[in-house]
Fold:
Amino acid sequence: MSEKEGKIYTITDIAKELGVSKTTVSRALSGKGRIGTETAERVRSFVERHNYTPNVVAKGLAQNKTYNLGIVFPFDYPDIPFFKECMDGICETAYHYNYDIIISVHWKEGVSQIQRLVMNHKVDGMIVTRAVINSQVVRFLKERRMPFVVIGPSDDLEVSSIDNPNREAGRELTSLLLMKGLRRLALIGGSDMHYVTESRKQGFIDAHLEQGITAASELIYTEVSDYRKTRRVVEQALSAGADGFICMDETICNLALGCLREMGIRIPADVKVVSMYDSHQMEFNLPPVTSLRFDTRGLGRKACLEMLRMLGENAEDEEAELSYELVLRDSTKT
Amino acid sequence: MSEKEGKIYTITDIAKELGVSKTTVSRALSGKGRIGTETAERVRSFVERHNYTPNVVAKGLAQNKTYNLGIVFPFDYPDIPFFKECMDGICETAYHYNYDIIISVHWKEGVSQIQRLVMNHKVDGMIVTRAVINSQVVRFLKERRMPFVVIGPSDDLEVSSIDNPNREAGRELTSLLLMKGLRRLALIGGSDMHYVTESRKQGFIDAHLEQGITAASELIYTEVSDYRKTRRVVEQALSAGADGFICMDETICNLALGCLREMGIRIPADVKVVSMYDSHQMEFNLPPVTSLRFDTRGLGRKACLEMLRMLGENAEDEEAELSYELVLRDSTKT
DNA sequence: CTGAAAGCGCTTACAG
DNA sequence: CTGAAAGCGCTTACAG
Structure:
């Protein structure tokens, strides 16, 4: 890793040592502009010998770039695998293209933290995780003309967005239950302010339409966020004859499972339960819960590639389309 | 947030507009050096009117600083609340002192990603989450003389480290079970390469010593990472007469609970189960699991403050000592 | 193919 | 209290 204790060389040092100009060294380093093969080789060799790495900050100042990308997490984002996987994918790709990732978490509603990042010239672009309806963040970034991509669906055509196939996957998961003969499916989800809630709901409805069954709209519950609400919703659904529960994510599913257990309802004997997002908790539950598994890390990678392309990097996206798996487990056994 | 569409002003623009020198503007901005109150006021007012923010990158170049801190996550770090909470705490504090956080995740063993961050002059210091015994990362950072703080215990006196009170808390949790009359406590933990494993084990032993009971060393299991190993360990412990299970973290606890359920063991009737780290999973389990709740976010804040102090910032730590709670739940009911 | 020079936006001795 | 100048480490027209 490090050769010697290591003086930190600058481009000026190299130029001096090699008896050429800084310009030449710079060109040899960047590979831009014509340069003698011998000169290039001498520079290359020096770099290698002394383990030289350019000062990216200085480079950035000269080029008006930072080689940093910001990732913004939503206000009060929950501790779910989604964000970590996303972040891992983004970092992986950024790293590969020599960019670094700066995180910014909202502490309160508003854009102050993002604002600072932008105003301070700390990033070249931003990746916004989890789209929110009517987002202040998006509005701010547009105003400031900061390039950005959004993870999540978007109805704004000016915005570059990318998402897991929540709707299609939701449709397939719902279809599965319908094909098992269930007819009173309850759907439990979180905030209507999140686009993802809408996508999942659409998937649920699509499946019903497809099979010519009318979805019971009274069995669709959103804005469910805590134990109390879950409990109420589960009770309501049950007394309205629900024979299956489709939970929009693993957190809600856990809550629902807790309620069902307390009420002495057996799964899958009495009702089936599925989650629209997989996790270890779903996998190791008793019974293990049938869930949708997305390639969220791949999603992060794709979002990052898109961002890099917007910044003029030659970042080809050679990966396959984002897909998902429907993981069948005991919670839907018949 | 943004006044007008907004030309981006530089210190030179301001100097020109105000008919003073860049030097003066710079001084007014930083508050260093004597300056006329009237001049200072004019600058202040301009800044406010035009929503000027200095280019931190340029500032950094001139001062040989970046106002970025790196946070390093361990190789293949698991998706547990600990890291998110830590990160949130760090970000919160960094933000407050006008620093930003760059993340770096190991993709493979080795230091390549961290190396790049350091060599590229992208950060002023690093916060290493979760100390590992004989860490390459620590060795590299020391060699490079990059300031850093480690989250986790450390036996290296040259290293600044800070940690949750895992040992004391572990002792208290173990004592609780001993006082309930349990005498065959099994301890299940992860990798011995993590310092935290050692701390927790020590706490377990401390409690036994304190009460004059000998801990059954054959009931101490580490290196437990997957379902299979957990299953084997749980069976062994049970046949060795274990009457309580102390799991070092929530992931292991979940695994253990799964095994116990499958084997038809009732909790808390047959055996008690506790976790040395709390989480929603522990809280919403059936039964809910008695756990230790740490202020990991506070830990992140403290680590960040320490880092800032090392960098010469006036970052006073006014927070209370890191503490923890022992949350009693049904899994230990008698 | 190569270099001298200006510039990126700031800071900081040094000299009034 | 204020300014001219040099400098942080790089890039990039422009001119050989």
